[in-house]
Design a protein that fits this description.
Elements: E1 13-20, E2 30-38, E3 52-55, H1 66-71, H2 73-80, H3 87-101, E4 114-117, H4 120-130, H5 132-135, E5 142-144, H6 145-155, H7 166-172, H8 187-205
Amino acid sequence: MNPAASVSTAPAYLWFDAEFSSLELEEAELLQVALMATDAQLKRLAPPEKDVVLFIKREDDRGISPWVKENIPHIVRGCLGSSALTLSDAEVRLCRYIDQVVGPIQTQASDRPLIAGNSVHNDWFLLRKYFPGVLRRAHYRLMDVSSFKTQWTDFYGGTLPPKDDPEFIRRHFPEATLREDMAEHDAYYDIQASVAELAYYRNKLGRV
């Protein structure tokens, strides 16, 4: 049977990633979020200019971990910049994107799009904490690329794909939009890398 012909469990994948102030999730505050929708075949449901990439407004950098300040300082600068949004305004933008691209909230949770990404349970936790309106629009399942990663490396002995290589992302997700200054630990880069990574595992596991 051709997997591409199978019926999807949801009408769309909502690729979501968040950069946050600390790995202690109970204390973590959002710094940056990104959202992009694809269908089950990993094709965009809207052009790149519709993608949501937001910095969350902060008054200062207190409470942000030293690792974040040292390794992704542009995220901190974005949170302190004039274009950063409050949490409430950010939630409105995210929910509006879902409603416009995927459609209004479905009565049956099984008909709603899946939140997708890497280690996406962390992002789900932060969505529940900060953006409950997004979860009201989402499926009860998660599409976690990390599960495929674990099976590919631990069970099949495969090597990890080079997600830090933009060319890898473009090869496996041709609809990617990457700027020269983007890299891992940028939320928008990471959601596109996750799509490419899932496509990579689908291709590899389809040959096993």
